[in-house]
Design brief:
By secondary structure, the protein is an alpha/beta fold. It is 41% helix and 23% strand. The protein has 2 domains: 254 residues, Aldolase class I (TIM Barrel); 71 residues, Arc Repressor Mutant, subunit A.
Length: 380
């Protein structure tokens, strides 16, 4: 039986850069689209031999805004994945999209080429908040795009929403939650805003134009999300992710279970054969290296030793609400997790942040609030 991997494909183009976004994405480089995809195709082909012994279980096309480019580019990329990689017939194939960039033609093309999961970035249900965070779509565009996707036959749709936005009230957040859950997507991702460096929000924050939301309100919003989405039949399976039964994101589970994946495109990250590495971030350099320098593209590479691998496995796995299996850890590393990390887990259990239950170690309700403190225990 072949081992499985996931593939991540990065599309760095956007119509407009959101104020909170620190991803490797650009709103002024669409003139590079043709050359970028030529380089991307070359990277995918060059790397295929390395993955010959693997089958591909998931493909995630992210960005940026993949739905901002013509669908022919996405079609060509998936053709290569099928031709050069062992892409399973039942693979989960996701694409990120923003409202206002989806059209009838794009959605029909996505469906035709085998994309079976859409991830639509809404972020908030209020026009004033959308404007304040630099989104360029309306609520009406989101609703129309969602309805169109359903008509075309997409039966696995995620919606991204954000809480703790500047000037967002508890009532705003409740309205967003209830309206999104009310249209019944299969998956909802709820992220707490973090003001990151090199963003518009970072400059506004430094200049005193915006403030970070109060910690207590942030937690109230989080509790509200858990309660409200549970009421609509969504199961919280990871710190920020909620799904209807059978609709967990298979690709993201690869990350949280510290399994192998290959990333293609400018700034894309990979975890493969015990190494973590990333491609060149600069789009122009990425294109030049692939088209002229025979694919010298890796900017950073780290060999993950066994102890570091164990720590990563714990930190990532503890994000899942069911935590990590003591038996699976032993099968993977050949040693009982408590023999190495028992003292740290005992301390966390004593503090009420972690519990040991049915052969698993998982965050408690309190631990979900202080997850970063738990994770820090396993960073040496």
């Amino acid at each position: 039986m072949k081992k499985s991997i996931g593939i991540y494909i990065h599309i760095p183009f956007c119509k407009s850069k959101c104020y909170y976004c620190d991803f490797n994405s650009f709103s002024h480089k669409s003139h590079l689209t043709e050359a970028y995809f030529d380089a991307l195709k070359k990277e995918i082909i060059i790397n295929s031999e390395r993955a010959a012994e693997y089958e591909v279980n998931t493909v995630f096309i992210g960005g940026g805004t993949p739905s901002s480019v013509e669908p022919k580019y996405i079609e060509h990329i998936l053709e290569l994945c099928r031709k050069y990689y062992g892409l399973r017939d039942d693979a989960e194939i996701s694409i990120e999209a923003n409202p206002g960039t989806l059209t009838d033609i794009k959605l029909k093309t996505y469906k035709y080429i085998g994309i079976n999961r859409l991830s639509i970035g809404l972020q908030a249900w209020q026009s004033r908040l959308l404007e304040s965070i630099g989104r360029i779509h309306s609520i009406e565009e989101f609703v129309n795009n969602f309805s169109l996707a359903r008509e075309i036959g997409f039966s696995n749709i995620n919606v991204d929403i954000i809480f703790s936005l500047p000037d967002q009230t508890l009532d705003d957040w409740h309205e967003t939650l209830s309206n999104v859950a009310g249209i019944n997507p299969e998956h909802i991702s709820c992220y707490s805003l973090k003001i990151e460096e090199n963003t518009v929000f970072w400059e506004k924050y430094k200049n005193g134009q915006i403030k970070e939301i109060d910690d207590r309100l942030d937690r109230e919003m989080y509790y509200m999300a858990k309660k409200e989405l549970s009421r609509y039949g969504y199961n919280m399976y990871e710190i920020s992710n909620f799904a209807k039964k059978g609709f967990k994101c298979r690709h993201n589970l690869i990350y949280w279970k510290a399994e192998s994946y290959l990333g293609f495109g400018a700034g894309a990250h990979s975890y493969f054969t015990g190494k973590r590495y990333n491609n060149i971030y600069n789009v122009e350099d990425y294109i030049e290296n692939y088209l002229k320098n025979e694919g010298k593209y890796i900017e950073g590479e780290v060999v993950i030793d066994n102890k570091e691998s164990m720590s990563e496995y714990i930190i990532l796995g503890m994000r899942l609400t069911k935590g990590i299996s003591i038996l699976e850890f032993e099968e993977r590393y050949g040693i009982n997790i408590m023999d190495i990390f028992g003292e740290r887990f005992d301390k966390l259990i004593e503090r009420g942040l972690v519990e040991k239950k049915d052969g698993r170690l998982m965050l408690t309700e309190t631990g979900l609030d202080f997850a970063n403190q738990v994770f820090m225990e396993f960073i040496d």
